[in-house]
Amino acid sequence: MKYWFDTEFIERPFTIDLISIGIVAEDGREFYAESSEVDWSKASLWTLENVRPQLDGKAMPREDIGYALRDFTDGDEHPVFWGYFPAYDWVAFTWLFGRMDELPMHYPQLCLDIKQWAIELGDPELPHQQGNRHHALLDARWTREAWAYLANLAPEAGERWAFGRKNPDQSGAAPK
Length: 176
Ligand SMILES: [Mg+2]
Known about the structure:
By secondary structure, the chain is an alpha/beta fold.
């Protein structure tokens, strides 16, 4: 099943501190969570003014978000995650579970990128997001819209799967 996701985070060298995560599943279910461990002292004024006011305040530890995410994808042996410019989002996502090699075994170790796909298709203008932005769930919904727009242009490519592990010869987790 496909999952479109977005995160809000505090970005600083050398930190990507997850604030919130939103996910829309292909079957229409939605997931939203906020971290209770954000170090707001590192946040930019922009983040304090644009992201923080949109939070609902029902935050939980990152590790608990990871468990909730496992529940959300429970029973799906081949999840495919899509994001928009998702390099940093994917790091924040992965860290909910620990290191990259601590992702659930059936999760791919990469996500797919709406923007990269758009570039492959000649970089068409994507649908504009209606309503508030910089709220992880609202942005995740838009990511699905953007995917649907591109999938209309190239239906088969929209069904690509993300497979695999970066180091397939490594069995199990690396020693700590
Ligand atoms: Mg966002």
